[in-house]
Amino acid sequence: MNEREFVSVFRSSKKSDTYIFVRRGQDWDELPESLKQVFGRPVHSMDLIMTPERKLARTTGEEVLSAIADKDFYLQMPEEQDAYVINFRTKPGLRHS
User: Fold this and answer.
1) Using CA atoms, how far apart are residues 21 and 65, in angstroms rounded to an integer?
2) pLDDT tens digits, residue range 16-60?
């Protein structure tokens, strides 16, 4: 794993909150076909210098750099949401103490 890497971040055109981190200049055609089909058209979000110490919203720079070294990409999927459970017996806006 490199100490630092210039990384490009792309968001998925098919799946919301799904991002892929790759080395800057990575040839999209070199990535696995199954990944490209699920991910859809990549939409460029940003470029950044990734270091192992970098903290990201859902991961660390160390995890991203390790995945890029092993697979040539790091795929960030949306977090599962357990908070979507709704109590339909109460009126909206009312709280129970």
Assistant:
1) 9
2) 999 999 999 999 999 999 999 989 999 999 999 999 999 998 999
Contact (CB, 8 A) for 21 and 3: no
Show the beta-strand stretches assigned E in 1-69: 5-12, 19-23, 42-50
Of residues 69, 64, 50, 38, the one with CA closest to residue 5: 50
Interior/surface letters 50-89, b for 16+ CB within 10 angstroms, e for the rest: bebebebeeeebeebbebbeeeebbbbeeeeeeeeeeeee
Q: pTM for the full model?
A: 0.78
